[in-house]
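PROTEIN DATA CARD
Card holder: Aminotransferase
Chain length: 472
Origin: Mesorhizobium calcicola
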Amino acid sequence: MAAARDLRATETAEVGGADAVELAKRHLIQPWPFAGSVGAEARALIGEGDGIYITDGTGKRLIDGPAGMWCVNVGHRHEELAKVMYDQAMALSYNTPWYTMNAPSAELAMRIAGHAPGDLSHVFTTTGGSSAVETALRFMQFYNNVRGRPEKKLILSRGGAYHGSTYLSASLNGRPRDRDWMDGADELVIKLSSPDPFRRPRGMSLAAFTDFLVDQFRDTVARVGAEKIGAFVGEPVQASGGVVVPPDGYLKRIRETCRDNDILYVSDEVVTAFGRLGHVFASGDVFGIDPDMITFAKGVTSGYFPLGGVIISERLLEELRRSNHPDAMFGHGLTYTSHPVGCAVALKNLDLLEEGVLAHTREVAPYFQAQLKTLEELPLVGEVRGLGLMGCVECVADRESKDPLQLDKDVGKRIDAHCHELGLLVRPLINMCVMSPPLVITREQIDDMVGILREGISRTMDDLRKEGVWRG
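Structure generated from the sequence above:
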């Protein structure tokens, strides 16, 4: 023990000049690690950011293709956001939300409610997306307990979904490999098909595919019983599942079915909110639906401070207030709920969005989608899809079978490695490359990004041919 303490003391004393990569290998556990390297790996070191660019540990300047993790919406090194953080921390750095409150959180709740669809008028803030989804689900459970329906707790989710890393939110996930080695609350979750038009059965029209999805939803409700299903949770666009844009009309029809069966519709806008699709919220402005709850995070502070939240329908709160259990407590809260610094940053970030970033996003998004679409000329690319400033390039062994499994399963990582060398950070997802740049990106920068991605894919095709993995 003494020797270990002495080693740590020596390392701490040397941190100023030590190699961060070596320190990470010794002490830092990265997210989503493999057992064979857990606690003993280092990932690409990022030193600084500026606008849409980041600089890696070697000094190479890269376009931040994923905008951090779908979140650096107004770009890196925004001085106004940094100043707000400093000013608020110097005024009030923290207050307990259990028996005190702060002004920025109240103002932020009002501003967010003003952008929300329908009667979503009250906000509960969290530390991020996972805790936002967890809060929505726990609220559903509380709501049904108070209303005398303790059996109405099952949750409908979908293949390809990603909703978080906390126990309950992660139980909803439906991406390949997410749950291979992880436990979950499987007894509470029912999985439905992914609304991925690219993977619909061969020969099936989009209209027929939409009917299939809706019929499956309705049949599931009828089979399980609406009296047992508490909520449906769905991303308007399945983000980490590969930017899956659902067929037209699908979400509206699912919303109607939820309303008809008294099932709470939770729209998970952790990715799509705060500008990614050109609006503060996509549920109403893009897809024409009014959920019972909306979860958000990421872009609410442009990633400058950890913050998330849930917007809850006034109807649900009024039903609780009218119940026969006025003393029932929603026993849920976080140390950093309504954090004053996070809320102050979110307010300034919302100012920036309203004052021009949203309009800019709507203006450049069609160009972004059109330029990405040109990558379908490459024989390795099966489909390019997206909406707003989020897109996905899906690589396939051949376009007839659409089979990614014959390819090297890490083809996305291969493309990312080439792109990194060329000046672009990509988010690789098995056989897919996901792009979601900062919303302030220009047309010229879009050209640079797509040009690098094209070259990265071309180099990967050459590699796969040489290795005999793919013939093209």
